[in-house]
From TrEMBL, chains A, B:
It comes from Pelagibacterium flavum. This is TetR/AcrR family transcriptional regulator. Residues 44-63 bind DNA. SUPFAM superfamilies: Homeodomain-like, Tetracyclin repressor-like, C-terminal domain. Keywords: DNA-binding, Transcription, Transcription regulation. It comes from the Bacteria. It holds the Pfam family TetR_N. The lineage of its organism: Bacteria, Pseudomonadati, Pseudomonadota, Alphaproteobacteria, Hyphomicrobiales. InterPro entries: Homeodomain-like_sf, HTH-type_TetR-like_transc_reg, HTH_TetR, Tet_transcr_reg_TetR-rel_C_sf, TetR_C. Coiled coil: none annotated. The keyword DNA-binding applies. The keyword Transcription applies.
Length: 205, 205
């Protein structure tokens, strides 16, 4: 259930154009195939249009930038992975970092794609809009991990879910962007320990 | 004293070439002037060479990439700011975020420059090398903030200085790269509270 979530709908809602589901899926499939077969360097709206037998204007009507289309494919890869729901807060944090962030990016296409989108967003407003909307949706979605632990009575109910998620995501982004995804397991444990200690019920009592 | 630190020396050491201090300063001055007067878009090795009346090969001998030179200028701007040493851990964390990271980047040239270097590092190996070395040095330097609090007996002596610094830096990078430096003060307080709670002596005892 947790895999059928939110952020793509949020983003699509903000585009505000009607889509034809059939052609849309054909375009996404073509985009994914190109990315898998040729990598990021072979990926362009032109190549996707050719492969999907769609017009470039059609693609641009639905995805206002290359980054927006890349993000949709990226998001599809991410949705193949389980979002953690172990019933234990620290295990969920571990799973979040290993499954959805650092482990998801490490050594493969997904990290390369996501780095490139972040980079493009720093100078291209359309890429920035796509990334920021996607990222906002993902962050909101990930907050459930903290909120569930609160609802179970496992952690301090006053814990700031948004900031906890952003500390973890920020740490992972930082590792990605400084080329340090390797050998992060001890450091992941250290992050989990810090967040665990910070959210303990009645700390210091 | 804490202002006369470390990371430039670390980085320069790794370049391993002798520099002539006079020309080097002239080049840095020219680079800074161009950046202040024309912004990032006017900044190029060519423009710096012209203004400093230096040869491009001379500049490249000392700074192997545009990103490396930009980082040196950026670092000069940063050194105009006090590195926090208030005698209190949470105040130091606040000062670190406000003075050296989010507040330093907000609304000005420095944030724009740093974003662009991070972006360039995602596709240009020379920029990556310069950024990663700089960032490693800065992180190492910032750890003193945690280590001093340990030495004062203020926080748990087992606190992981490196990970604490990276959580904070990662949070700030994330804000910078998602265009959310505005209105961060409440969130900075929330970050400080989380790190404060996580490093309390004998938590839960």
């Amino acid at each position: 259930m947790t895999k059928e979530h939110g952020s793509v709908a949020v983003r699509r809602g903000s585009i505000g154009a009607k889509r034809n589901p059939a052609s849309q899926q054909a375009i996404l499939d073509a985009a994914e195939a190109i990315l898998r077969e040729e990598g990021l360097s072979g990926f362009s709206i032109e190549a996707v249009a050719r492969r999907a037998r769609a017009g470039k204007p059609t693609i641009y009507r639905w995805w206002p930038s290359k980054a927006a289309l890349l993000l949709d494919v990226y998001h599809g890869f991410k949705n193949l992975r389980q979002f953690p729901d172990t019933g234990n807060f620290e295990d969920d944090l571990r799973g979040f970092l290993n499954n959805q962030l650092i482990g998801f990016w490490h050594g493969g296409l997904c990290g390369t794609v996501f780095r490139s989108i972040i980079a493009e967003a720093q100078s291209d407003p359309a890429a920035a809009e796509a990334l920021f909307a996607y990222e906002r949706g993902r962050r909101k979605f990930a907050e459930q991990l903290v909120d569930r632990a609160k609802a179970r009575g496992e952690i301090d109910p006053d814990s700031n879910s948004a900031i906890i998620v952003e500390l973890i995501a920020g740490f992972a982004w930082h590792r990605l962007l400084t080329g340090r995804l390797d050998g992060s397991q001890d450091d992941i444990e250290a992050v989990v320990a810090i967040i665990g200690a910070a959210t303990k019920k009645n700390p210091g009592a």
